[in-house]
Amino acid sequence: MIAGGGTLMLRASRLMCAVLSAAPPRHLVGTPRMARSLVSLSLLPDAPSSRGSSISRVPPALDVDPAAREKKTNLYGLSDDELAAFVADLGQPKYRGKQLAEWLFSKGAASFDDMLNLPATFRAQLHERATLGSLETSVVQTSKDGTRKYLWRLADGREIETVMMPYEDGRRTACISSQVGCAMGCTFCATGQMGFTRDLTREEIFEQAMRVARDLKAQGE
User: Three-state SS string across 96-130, please?
Assistant: First the structure.
């Protein structure tokens, strides 16, 4: 469990269950959100075989300036109270915080420009002072069975993976990284041979779920 991350992790759990798992098992319907999310959220040390797959290499985004990013606030890392304080600091009315939270955690906006019910002046402030996450896409690899593996580059230059696996009954399971490397040291696992580097932040964990969910939505799922 990540200290101080209760609200954000609950959002991640709700996102994983509601968006990535289109058909949760019948015996889990009606149980707490966190319990249901375990069906969709698997923490695996390894990735599926890449045999019979296609690879899409994505160049770094041209507008990403690491130094500038460090000075901006990653909105995915803010609690409701912190988001309200951030909005107030920009001189915006309190209700703007709730509107912003809806775009971030319910609608999954990919850009501040998509937040059409926010004034243009407010969106300009957000562009200047904030970011929607920090992950850069390095490689997307898709297998014949639809399994998709994402290689993300973190703000500190390290890399992690997320894997989305489709099932015939309509479910989509996302295996989300929770740390860089692994301390288990399993000889059959490339990640284990890397050794452990650090735990991911709550916003880095949440953003993986959001990015996969956004990708599926773009494909009409």
Answer: HHHHHHHHHHCCCCCCHHHCCCCCHHHHHHHHHHE
Burial of 68 (0-12, 13-18, 19+ CB in 10 A): exposed
Quick check: 107 and 117 in contact, CB under 8 A?
no
**Rounded to 5°, angle at Cα 109 from 105 and 47:** 75
The CA-based angle 161-110-88, given to 5 degrees, is 115
DSSP line for 33-92: HHHHHHHHEE--SS----TTEEEEE-PPPTT--HHHHHHSEEGGG--HHHHHHHHHHTT-
Residues 55 and 146: beta-carbon distance below 8 Å: no
| β pairing state of 130-131 and 73-74 | parallel
Tell me which residue of 173, 198, 195 sits closest to 182, measured CA to CA: 195
**In this structure, what token pair is assigned to residue 199?**
């735990």
Within 10 angstroms of residue 71's Cβ, the number of other Cβ atoms is 9
* This model's pTM is above 0.70: no
pLDDT in tens, 43-79: 333 334 444 555 554 444 434 455 455 689 999 999 9
Beta pairing class for 73-74 and 196-199: unpaired
